[in-house]
């Protein structure tokens, strides 16, 4: 089977081709326009998707050496995400499927982040646990089958990626700040500053408290020394990163023990974080669990994860009709 996949839920326009379950291309067009605004501007994102989608698809087909007439089905992100952004991808997918008279496959973006683990040979076995940490979500997911997933814990307020991005904004860094915190953290001392660990019952998370703690910490220190952030940037980033990773992994570890699960996966944009990746590896080694950490290109938003999810739906023959509409909110 030849699957063409489209991802346009936020600010990445991406197209991928998957042949018999093997990803042959994964083209990602990043939008830089949002940097100046300190966050994604939905209206601008939709317009840039509109410009990027056709070139991205052409490039994905050409890298995969696949003719557009040989595509068997089109998979697309139906939600969750920004409605205007999703509409561009959904409309493109519908038009392509209509023109070629091939089936349409709708994909849940958060399921796709998890299913990125089925790209390549190192695959987890069901049931496994996946910590999905991204710009909009923080979830511990019990993955029972490809499309049978249960959220057993989630954030009550900010997502982990949001905490990274808001912290970086407080530090005066551009959007998105997660990758920059990662970069500076490598050069700093993670034990220099102590930020609070919220006490939330069960497997849920909260990141709004730590954000406020960082805000006051910076405000008070800058009042005493205007150069405090510049002088201690590496140590601040390392300490923030360590605290966020500890909060995430303490809950994940608790869930693994309670559910008796030994295959542990990481997914979503924040799973690109070096400190989190290293800490998960160490945690799994200590407990004799297997860790599954995606390649960097499959952590942040990409169409390859939509393609592999689409492939597994194609095998089941699960298609949608032309009247399908995107969903800004779409549960797992
Ligand atoms: P969602 O998947 O919840 O709809 P999204 O699609 O916007 O949200 P992703 O693209 O999956 O999110 O992830 C983006 C987030 O990942 C941003 O918050 C970004 O700062 C963060 N991020 C990316 N790379 C790193 C990194 N190396 N370290 C920390 N955070 C990172
Ligand atoms: Mg993004
Ligand atoms: Fe995402």
Automatic annotation (TrEMBL):
UniProt keyword Transcription regulation present: no
Residue numbers binding substrate: 132-136, 165, 178, 182, 273
GO annotation terms (biological process): tRNA threonylcarbamoyladenosine modification
Listed SUPFAM superfamilies: Actin-like ATPase domain
Entry EC no(s): 2.3.1.234
Enzymatic class: transferase
Subcellular location: Cytoplasm
Family matches, as NCBIfam families: gcp_kae1, T6A_TsaD_YgjD
Protein name per the record: tRNA N6-adenosine threonylcarbamoyltransferase
Species whose genome carries this gene: Mucilaginibacter frigoritolerans
């Amino acid at each position: 089977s030849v699957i063409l996949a489209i991802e346009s839920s936020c600010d990445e326009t991406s197209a991928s081709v998957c042949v018999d379950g093997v990803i042959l291309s994964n083209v990602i067009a990043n939008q830089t326009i949002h940097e100046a605004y300190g966050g994604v501007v939905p209206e601008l994102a939709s317009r840039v998707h509109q410009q990027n989608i056709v070139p991205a698809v052409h490039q994905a087909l050409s890298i995969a050496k696949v003719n557009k007439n040989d595509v068997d089905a089109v998979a697309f992100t139906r939600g969750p995400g920004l409605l205007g952004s999703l509409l561009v991808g959904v409309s493109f997918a519908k038009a392509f499927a209509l023109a070629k008279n091939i089936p349409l496959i709708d994909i849940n973006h958060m399921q796709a982040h998890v299913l990125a683990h089925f790209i390549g040979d190192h695959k987890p076995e069901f049931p496994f646990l996946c910590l999905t940490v991204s710009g909009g979500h923080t979830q511990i997911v019990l993955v029972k089958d490809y499309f049978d997933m249960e959220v057993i814990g989630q954030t009550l307020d900010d997502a982990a990626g949001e905490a990274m991005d808001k912290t970086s904004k407080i530090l005066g860094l551009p959007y998105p700040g997660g990758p920059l915190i990662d970069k500076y953290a490598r050069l700093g001392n993670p034990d220099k500053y102590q930020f609070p660990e919220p006490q939330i019952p069960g497997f849920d998370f909260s990141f709004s408290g730590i954000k406020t703690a960082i805000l006051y910490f910076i405000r008070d220190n800058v009042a005493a020394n205007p150069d405090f952030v510049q002088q201690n940037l590496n140590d601040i980033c390392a300490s923030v990163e360590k605290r966020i990773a500890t909060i995430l992994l303490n809950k994940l570890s608790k869930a693994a023990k309670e559910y008796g699960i030994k295959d542990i996966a990481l997914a979503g944009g924040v799973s690109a974080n070096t400190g989190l990746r290293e800490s998960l590896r160490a945690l799994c080694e200590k407990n004799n669990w297997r860790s599954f950490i995606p390649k960097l290109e499959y952590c942040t938003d990409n169409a390859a994860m939509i393609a592999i999810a689409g492939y597994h739906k194609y095998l089941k023959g699960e298609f949608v009709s032309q009247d399908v509409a995107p969903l800004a909110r779409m549960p797992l």
